[in-house]
Design brief:
Elements: E1 2-10, H1 16-27, E2 31-36, E3 39-44, H2 49-57, E4 64-73, E5 81-83, H3 103-109, H4 152-158, E6 180-183, H5 190-199, E7 204-207, E8 212-217, H6 221-231, E9 239-241, H7 244-250, H8 255-261, E10 268-272, E11 287-291, H9 296-305, E12 309-313, H10 325-331, E13 338-342, E14 354-358, E15 361-366, E16 376-377, E17 387-389, E18 399-402, E19 405-408, H11 418-434, E20 441-445, H12 451-457, E21 463-466, H13 468-479, E22 489-499, E23 505-513, E24 518-524, E25 527-528, H14 534-537, H15 539-549, H16 553-559, H17 565-574, E26 580-581, H18 584-594, H19 607-615, E27 630-631, H20 634-645, H21 650-674, E28 681-684, H22 691-700, E29 706-707, H23 719-732
Parallel strand pairs: 2-5, 7-13, 9-11, 10-14, 17-20, 20-21, 22-28, 24-27, 28-29
Antiparallel strand pairs: 1-3, 1-4, 2-3, 6-13, 7-8, 8-12, 9-12, 10-11, 14-15, 16-19, 17-18, 18-19, 22-23, 23-24, 25-26
Enzyme class: ligase
Family: Belongs to the carbamoyltransferase HypF family.
GO molecular function: acylphosphatase activity; carboxyl- or carbamoyltransferase activity; double-stranded RNA binding; ligase activity; zinc ion binding
Length: about 725
């Protein structure tokens, strides 16, 4: 009696079949293994519990085994164990994300073999995946490597089950693979020319996995200032790249942070600043975003430069990252002194993922390269049906449900930008085609002005509109596998803004609900958002209306003497372009403006709030806020302004603000759990990317079950996930 074994999950393009081949030989089994539309199928001639257990326990590093199904069969006799040709194509299995260069390949490019110094070295354990895939199944002919015919040496490795390059679709070498060159810099090879220019203070546009980066010497203040001037980016933090041994000279990461840096996803990891590097890398911030080199090209270049590099997205302001060579020459010529290019095409643009480690575990701020298209399991009790969620206007991302899995797509950006909108439409087509997805309904935000909402309504399918903060709550529940019948949860949802069903703009909420629905249990007292979108860019506007509401109009006059205060107050009184908003994000802006942090205008979204977090000193008792279901911040502003007038340090004021906000919301959420109205508390919304706020709230919820984001962003990057889960709950009842 033999066994037929089905392995489901992320098991194609990760070396799973040669792993099974080697495992079968170890256990003395005969039979076969192959890829098919559902994953990996194995047939062995005899029963072996150890073999089946090892399939999960010893799986290759990039594999993710979700489920193993086995049944007894009468196996056809086989002389040995063989790897058979793939079965029928399909999209029932999953594609692995792009993976950072593995240690064996790093050793190879710095060794003496035929791939010495080769910038496109890879194997089944590393290299490009999603960024080169054009269609399924994941075979070389369906990738941008199809243009490169294998040489005899690579073909031999590709066909040898004992070789780590067996069926490595991007396999290449200098004789048959992509080539690298440097335009605009002279001397030596491409790497040497680019490195010399970087050491001399120049800027180089570098073609990576998911797009171009702009690089300069991170230790050179003049080079940093030049790049900021050219990009018109005065303060937004730059990401840095360095090998670990160089990174450790400039940062002191914990073991958990080092492990995250070395993860195959190779995200940007926020690390605490230490003295030494120029402040201009991240003005006013307490962290720097670091990543390790994740392609052979990066390893070779960093080794040649010998110092950390700025590695920021290569794009015009507001536009998505450049991916094509001609596009780079056209759009980045004003930024870069030279171009380090290659002739392997990028099938889809992917920004670098951004993550951090908090005292409460990992936090994802941007989900992109290295994390996508990995999936999340569908929570128990929700129907396994195909739905597409289109997310919101900011930090756009799509989500698809199929086969008990949820595919949350990559970060796209702000949909008001024309090219980002084109990228959104392409992603919609792209994911549907790649994963053979045919939705029976689409879900979108309640706001009719969002482009994603308008797109959903134009699909000709049933549309399920979802309130913004309900989607945030559902996303947090879904990531934590909260079952459909798990009961109601008290969701503390703090973010910028989202349209409420009452027509006002919400953003400082306690919702009592689940996937099926919600009620508004408490919320921040609303204030006019005078000027609409202008209030999101100019913190003084939020400070003025909050100070006026707290009876501190004279102080507002002294703080903002040059501002058009009378005009603003008339607009607030009449409601002219001044919608009411309970936004917690704008509360951060108001406090920051009072403390003198970017009061006139922010140079990027969230700048004032990030600076306020960075400023916070040791824990302090919190400022008071009003009682009741409408949380009035007037007492907070009154006390804060007294402390400010008394000369208390801004670090103390920031600490007390964070503590007061946390206390007001945590106390009410805890009460909902203790009275039996809720089973747990969920923390979600973009404000919970603030690690200090997260810690302050969790400290006040000790002893209460709390759900937080760890694998998906708390910000709008997860809205589509929540929308899909709510839509599935509604479809279940129809």
């Amino acid at each position: 009696m033999g066994r037929r074994i089905r392995v489901r999950g992320q098991v194609q393009g990760v070396g799973f079949r040669p792993f099974v081949w080697q495992l079968a030989r170890r256990f003395g089994l005969t039979g076969w293994v192959r890829n098919d539309a559902e994953g990996v199928l194995i047939e062995v001639s005899a029963l072996s519990e150890g073999f089946e257990a090892a399939l999960r326990a010893e799986a290759p590093p990039l594999a993710r085994v979700d489920r193993i199904e086995a049944s007894d069969v009468i196996a056809a006799p086989c002389a040995g164990f063989e790897i058979r040709a793939s079965g029928a194509p399909g999209a029932e299995t999953r594609v692995a994300p792009d993976a950072a260069t593995c240690p064996a390949c790093v050793e190879e490019i710095f060794g003496t073999g035929r791939r010495h110094g080769y910038a496109f070295t890879n194997c089944t354990h590393c290299g490009p995946r999603f960024t080169i895939l054009t269609r399924l199944p994941y075979d070389r002919a369906q990738t941008t490597m199809a243009a490169f015919d294998l040489c005899p040496a690579c073909a031999a490795e590709y066909g040898d089950p004992a070789d780590r390059r067996f069926h490595a679709q991007p396999i290449a070498c200098p004789d048959c693979g992509p080539r690298l060159w440097c335009e605009g810099a002279e001397g030596g090879g491409a790497i040497e020319a680019a490195a010399a220019l970087l050491r001399a203070g120049g800027t180089v546009a570098i073609k990576g996995l998911g797009g171009f980066h702009l690089a300069c010497d991170a230790t050179d203040p003049a080079a940093i200032a030049q790049l900021r001037s050219r990009k018109h980016r005065p303060a937004k933090p730059f990401a840095l790249m360095a090998p670990l041994e160089i990174l450790l000279r400039h940062a002191a990461p914990s073991e958990a942070e080092i492990a995250l840096l070395k993860d195959p996803a190779a995200p940007i990891v926020l690390l605490a600043k230490t003295p030494g590097l120029p402040e201009a890398l991240a003005p006013g911030q307490a962290t720097l975003g670091w990543m390790l080199p994740y392609t052979p090209l990066h390893h070779l270049l960093l080794a040649a430069v010998g110092r950390p590099l700025v590695m920021t997205s290569g794009n015009l302001s507001g536009e998505p990252q450049v991916i094509g060579n001609a596009e780079a020459r056209e759009k980045l010529a004003g930024f870069a002194d030279a171009f380090l290019m290659h002739d392997r095409e990028i099938a889809r643009r992917l920004d670098d993922s951004v993550e951090r480690i908090t005292p409460h575990g990992p936090m994802v701020l941007r989900r992109a390269r290295g994390r996508v298209p990995a999936t999340l399991p569908l929570p128990a009790g929700l129907p396994d049906r195909q739905v597409t969620g289109y997310g919101g206007q900011m930090k756009a991302a799509l989500c698809l449900s199929k086969n008990g899995q949820l595919l949350l797509g990559h970060h796209l950006g702000e949909l008001n930008e024309a090219l980002t909108w084109e990228a959104f439409l392409q992603a919609d087509r792209d994911y549907a085609a790649l994963f053979d997805h045919t939705p029976e309904a689409v879900a979108c935000d309640l706001h009719p002005g969002f482009r994603a909402t308008q797109h959903a309504e134009g699909r000709g399918l049933p549309v399920i509109p979802v309130q913004h903060h309900h989607a945030h709550l559902a996303a947090c529940l879904g990531e934590n596998l909260w079952p459909a019948d798990g009961g109601k949860v008290a969701g503390i949802v703090l973010d910028g803004l989202g349209l409420g069903p009452d027509g006002t703009l919400w953003g400082g909420e306690i919702l009592l609900g689940d996937y099926h629905g919600f009620t508004r249990a408490a919320h921040l007292a609303p204030a006019p958002l005078v000027g609409g979108d202008a209030a999101q860019a100019e913190p003084w506007r939020n400070a003025l209306v909050r100070l006026d509401a707290a009876g501190l109009a004279e102080l507002a006059d002294r703080l903002f003497p040059e501002a058009p205060r009378a005009l603003l107050r008339r607009a607030a009184a009449t409601g002219m372009n001044a919608p009411l908003s309970s936004s917690a994000g704008r509360l951060f802006d108001a406090v920051a403006a009072i403390l003198g942090l970017y009061p006139a205008r922010q140079s990027f979204e969230g700048e004032a709030a990030m600076r306020l977090e960075a400023l916070a000193g040791p824990p302090e008792p919190g400022y008071p806020m009003g009682t009741g279901t409408q949380i009035d911040p007037a007492p907070l502003f009154q006390t804060l302004c007294r402390d400010h007038a008394a000369g208390l340090p801004p670090a103390t004021l920031s600490a007390r603000f964070h503590a007061g906000l946390a206390e007001a919301f945590a106390t009410r959420a805890r009460t909902l759990v203790e009275t039996g109205a809720a089973r747990a508390v969920a923390l979600t919304g973009g404000c919970f990317q603030n690690a200090r706020l997260l810690d302050e709230v969790l400290t006040r919820l000790q002893g209460v079950p709390v759900l937080i984001h760890r694998a998906t962003p708390a910000n709008d990057g997860s809205l589509a996930l929540g929308q899909v889960l709510i839509a599935l709950a509604q479809l279940e009842s129809t």
